[in-house]
Amino acid sequence: MDTSFAVVTGASSGIGFELAKQFGQNGYELLICSGSDEIFEAQRQLEDLGFKVEAVKENLAGYSGVENLFKRIQNYGKAIDVVAINAGIGVGGEFIQTSLKEEINLINLNVVSAVHLTKRILPEMQLRGSGKILYTSSIASQMPSPFEAVYGASKAFLTSFAESIRNEASDYGVSVTILMPGATNTNFFHRAHMDDTKAGSEMKYDNDPAEVARQGFEALMAGKEKVFSESLLTKIQGKALKYLPEKMKASFHRKWSEPQAEQ
Questions:
Q1: Full DSSP string of 66-95
Q2: What whole-number distance in Å separates Cα of residue 46 and Cα of residue 55?
């Protein structure tokens, strides 16, 4: 019997790796991608679980990285049933003190590569009249994000983009789902220089990446528009944010993301 084919970006660890596990456990062949050598260790771990996995090391923050990934997808020789556009990074700190180079790289990965990869994959799904796309956004997309200003803005862009693509793609049988995790127990905060924040030292333990991925997978398979995951607190926050004034949301986010020594 022919198996389905899923592509997962940012799959070397964290939510992306757990998403790949979800697809593998549900019978998908996998092509996983990351910009680090860790992707090959992720491949080995997934293969040990009995999954068929191809690993691609490419930096998707660059134009050539996305093009090279798409060539590998084409060379795989199977139509893409699902793509999980999950690759993303954060940069924490007060905007006047953060690195412009890091933030431009963030925009290129979180925003530009998502648009670029969608532009390559969606037309093929349209021709077949089927396919599913999962975008990993963030609960931060729903509020001003002081001390993560560029990250929050990137996820707000991604959420708006995904909602627009969902509306268009429904005309030809392609569904789009947005995964919106709260602070999750991954390496995200360490890489974003946020170990000394409430989100990076306390709140991330509220959300397990395996459970985030499971809820994202189930929402994707059900054709849902979005899912706030994983904990009950994250789900409540996601719903409550609709009704709070922007000033209050910004104040809440600052308490989570500002270095604790400065508060």
A1: HHHHHHHHHHHTS--SEEEE-------S-T
A2: 10
Please give the Cα distance from 207 to 199 (Å, whole number): 11
The full set of domain ranges for the chain reads 4-262
61: DSSP letter = T
How many angstroms separate the CA atoms of 153 and 149, rounded? 6
Residue 69: name the closest of 112, 31, 17, 24 by CA: 31
Q: What is the mean pLDDT of the chain?
A: 94
Do the strands 28-34 and 53-57 form a parallel or antiparallel pair, or are they unpaired?
Answer: parallel
Instruction: For 6, list phi and psi in degrees, rounded to 5.
Output: -125, 140
Report residue 199 as tokens.
């989100």
For 4-262, which CATH class? alpha beta
Q: What does the DSSP 8-state code read for residue 230?
A: S
- Work out the widest C-alpha separation in the chain, in whole angstroms: 59
pTM of model > 0.85: yes
